[in-house]
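I hope you will forgive my troubling you with a question about protein structure. I should value your view on which stretches of the chain appear to form regular backbone elements. Here, with my thanks, is the record as I have it:
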Amino acid sequence: MRVQISRVAMAAPPNIQTADALGPLIGRSGDWIRQRTGVDRRHISAVSMEQLGAEAARAAIGDGPPPDLLINASLTPLQLIPDSSVFLLGALGYSGIPAFSVHATCLSFAVALSQAAALIHAGLYRRILIVSAETGSLCRDFEEPESAALIGDGAGAALVEATPEGEDSALLAFRMATWPEGSDYAELRGLGTRNFPEAPHTRPADNRFHMRGPRLFRFTAQRFGPFLAELLGPLGLSPADIDLVVPHQASGPALDALPAFGFDPARVVNIIAEYGNCIAASLPMALAVAQAEGRLRRGDRVLLLGSGAGLSLAAALLRW
């Protein structure tokens, strides 16, 4: 599909929580956090998700016109109803523009990108704004050191438009697969009908993030190789043909494992040490960092990929 990400931007809260500062709160040392998760520091937001998202969105829009459609691609909602896209739209000062959410946990941005590309390809919209804004630090469970040590706050936003004449940008392929047998490896059990607030069995911990890290890592690793082959094989490509890999910043060990699947480590965007795992926002944030570093070049093959609770894998291959 002849679409391109024309602009991308990010926002990181100014308040920083280092591994050494977090360590006493979870009963671990700063060195333990860095070694187990790869996270040296994370940013903690003092504002709500729609304000953080609007900051990234304004930077992505710049002096251009408003979008035709806003897609919120975030896990952490402001509230359940209305949808968080409504509040993002309001924070940007827009009214009358359609807005909705795509919820695919950590993969929300990648899935929203595929949906935006399809809508533009179908001629329904011309200029779509995707916003991922996460304040997941509020959901950390300090009784679970490994998961609590991973999460940070941040936002990313991208404008998706039809590729101009004379340019070759395109979404070359998209693939997603979900294995529900991994559904209990990463959970936030509350805020739904299963554990609604008034239920006698609902506990405060149900409203915090729960992760079985080692099992999640093994489950993902076992499926990642075949998943990649099914994405790249029909195109006659291998991981060595990818110019830039932009992964969801799941953890340091997850990023360190990518070379085992054939990716050149020098071509992997790794921002985990500075920002931690910012859930769905980590993909557009990594894109924005890559852009700022001059690593995004038109014509390059850029692979967005990651895993999310479900368990799901998703990847989008772009000719940038």
In short: The chain has a mean pLDDT of 94. The domain at 170-319 is CATH 3.40.47.10 (Peroxisomal Thiolase; Chain A, domain 1).
